[in-house]
Amino acid sequence: MTKITCFPDNKIIEAHPNKTFLENLLSEDVPHTDVCGGQGNCSTCRVMILEGIDNCSKVTPLEIALAERLDFPFHVRLACQSLKLLPE
Question: Residue 45 belongs to a domain with what CATH number?
Fold first, then answer.
């Protein structure tokens, strides 16, 4: 199974590929802010992908709109919209 390493506490969790990053984090009791309830509207759940971005789902239209408006670099994704698809 694929793993997600959460910084700054170095917590490693098992990632279920059919769940978003946010769903994976919350199901493993990793606190993570999501003001809009995971709808992709607020950007508070954004994460920086340090490794394995090629293994993530494609950027959604919601992510594209927010990234353009807020000038996110390519490796910043919305945890509520992004899936970890392939093992590293």
Answer: 3.10.20.30
